[in-house]
Amino acid sequence: MALLIAMIGLLIYLQSKQVKFNHRVFLSLVLGVILGFVSQLLGDASDNVTNQSLNFIGNGYFALLKMLVVPLILTSIIHSILNIGDASGKILRALSIRSVAMLLGMTALASGIAIAVGLWFHVGQGLQLPTDSIVPTHHYTGFVDTLLGMIPSNPVAAMSNENTVAIVLFAVLLGVSAMLIYRQQQEKVESFRSFISAAFEVVKQLTRLVLAITPYGVLALIAHVTATQGIASLEAILNFIAAMYVAMVLVLVMHLLILMLRGVKPWHYLANAYPALLVAFTTRSSFGTLPVTEEILKNRFNLRQVTSTFVPSVGATLGMNACAGIFPAMLVVMVMTIMHLPIHFNTVIAIMMINMVASLGISGIPGTAFVAATVSLSALGLPYAIIGLVQGVDAVVDMGRTATNVNGVMTTAIVVDGSIKT
Questions:
Q1: More confident residue, 218 or 243
Q2: pTM of the model
Q3: Which of 32, 162, 333, 417 could cross-link with 118 by S-S, CB 3.0 to 4.6 Å?
């Protein structure tokens, strides 16, 4: 506890000395790892004061991030549509088609990379499938049903259920409706326009206040994960975890190569993007990371406001490179290796296509990675039982998955925004 207080005091001191935000966030990651290992070495109980403090600080920060998401999506998208005027319809159409196409395409490529890495690491070799029947908590009920679930039949329920696609669609429809009235009868919508503009400024300031405590949230979250997970629980399927992280690094390299084709230097990108990746890594939530992602895209990469909000909001539940691409593909390779089934080129193409379509069809469903895996496994006639082998270390894998998802979203936003001419 004394060490935690000292670390928080150090971060406060550095903030008072106006040390760069990026440097303080990175330092908090290092301090969190140290604090977590010290806590584990001392053998602290899971219910002690230190762990409770870490839980409060980390989850409190995460809760504040989630608090920002709905007002940020609503105000920023409506504000952007009202301010891009006559070009709004063209921009939104191009933004929607290109961002979704790119997210899905990169998910297919990520699946192919995961298959190659899985075969290289021989994931699943020496393992046996659990005999217990694994039944997913959330079920995939079909592509059409999921598409219907994206329609905001109840906007309040969509906000409550964190259905970002439905929230985005509601905000777009509301913004377009206001814009159409504004063109014909400006006086009738002037008060609404002023309200949205003021609300957007207030939400932006609120976002700055919450993001200012990011170093403390990262410190607590990474310390808690390190203290509770450690490395003892990883030994049984360490090969699987290593293969997952190698695949995720390769997908990150793919993102950087795509950005290079758009003229973005990799080092410049990483220097500006890593706070969002770090928050994603520690919170394990693309939804919770949305405010950070939006802020970085808008202020550090100078993207349009509508792009900075629209693409991350859609990408939080659709076309996720790791959850819907790498993870399902790796589990399929594991099962087929355990069952001694050959993986031919046709199988690889089938897995890539299934994961790409499934990544669109599972948007908005909780537990995305496992639902995506069950879709891929069931489509290939493979047993779900493999999920039982990886559930115990999913927290460790999910940190990398979320960071990879967010990186894919930021890559998409930068590329798509640069491709749209006004």
A1: 243
A2: 0.73
A3: 333
